[in-house]
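HOLO CASE FILE
Compound: pyridoxal-5'-phosphate
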Amino acid sequence: MSDRKTSPRATLPSVDRLIRSAAIRPMIDRHGRRLVTEVVREVLDVFRTSLARNERVAVSPVSGDAIVDRVARVLDDMFTPSLRPVRNLTGTVLHTNLGRSPLPREAVAAMTAVATGAANVEYDLDYGGRGDRDSHVEDWLLRLTGAAAATVVNNNAAAVLLVLNSLALRRDVIVSRGELIEIGDAFRLPDIMARAGCRLREVGATNRTHAADYENAVSSRTGLILKAHTSNYIVQGFTAAVEGKDLAEIAGKHGVPLVVDLGSGTLVSLRKFGLPEEPTVSAILNAGADLVTFSGDKLLGGPQAGIIVGRKDLVARIKRNPLKRALRVDKITLAALGALLPLYADPERLVERVPALGLLARPVAEIRNMAERLAPVVADRLAGIAVVTVRSCMSQVGSGALPLDSLPSAALAIKPVGAKKKAPRVLRDLTAAFRSLSTPVIGRINDGLFLLDMRCLEDEEEFARDVTRLAFNP
Ligand SMILES: *Cc1c(COP(=O)(O)O)cnc(C)c1O
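Model generated. Tokens follow.
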């Protein structure tokens, strides 16, 4: 045993010899001696361990080439960005795990313009002194929502946390039991409430909450009444909820603020895009909400951000909270949002200018035609492995927006041929092959099929070219 362990080690070249070799020198020129030496050491360690463990390999000396190849590969991997573009063919348009909203061209240009140098983030160019970070977006937010004041933080979860902590620290927050929401990525209202230092005062039942439930819960300890948009589910059947207007009346009567966490938050009616009606931010404010919070990267179609709009005195209190400093947005986000909002001035052209809305409103005929054109390309590449057909399917808006409403779409349905028993493995290998394309393609498995929903595919020709490079070894 000890023989096997020691003898193969002798067959490995030394770190020094490798570093001085002609094959490694160009890597040192590119990445520096220190990193390359570290990687050479790590790779040698790996070889040494596997030699010690594996008799069969140990018999043949490991060539210097194999080590050099491995070092080159490790360095390549290290310098390939981990975060990169993918093709979202999951059928979920605003996919949280895939970065939600694609940004308008105008937003990208604005981000680039401020990214490389200094910008007047908190500097007032008129009077030449300290300015307000929110000033770059506040005017447009007020114009588009009818609110009296606005502020922006890192995301909507931060917006809710900040509102609760600013207005209801050590006080009761009244919420209907039907609205104690959990959103996909670990946003759970009761938990946020606890961390914000608020006491949760649940009222009503899961399916029914009445005005009297709120009335009876209001006391001198009440900080605010919270209404949360049930973004990712609906309560159906024998149900009752208190409308915003009636809730506003109760809140007003007792002098406590009514806060609405709208989640997706849209500034315009979605009906003209063929989507079901969602209350707009201004409608919620008109119905009497004192504050509304919503996301920047859901239906709004912008960067990740949490937007708070509403009463001036309340927004002022929020802005004075030290937590605002911890949750603030950077110049890049402000630039993107500042370029997105003016696009809403002309709702007629939103679909062309805001990609998220463009994708949601994409005509099914256009999607289907593209699928028909691409099906033979994919079928050709997968000949003998899988058959490819075009199928009607439903896309989802995603991010908890309009949960029950799906959009008619078309998908490439890829079905493995051959033994049924092997199908699950072939499917898994297919998804892996699509994921390892230079621009990874993410689809979904459904009912024994690998589905690629074509709704979000925009660069048809590039996709077709990529597919021919699909490396699939069954
Ligand atoms: C999405 C959502 C949130 C969280 O918003 P983020 O921008 O993802 O932080 C909070 N509340 C509701 C109702 C939501 O739909």
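CASE NOTES: The mean pLDDT is 91. DSSP finds 21 helices and 17 strands in the chain.
CLOSED: yes
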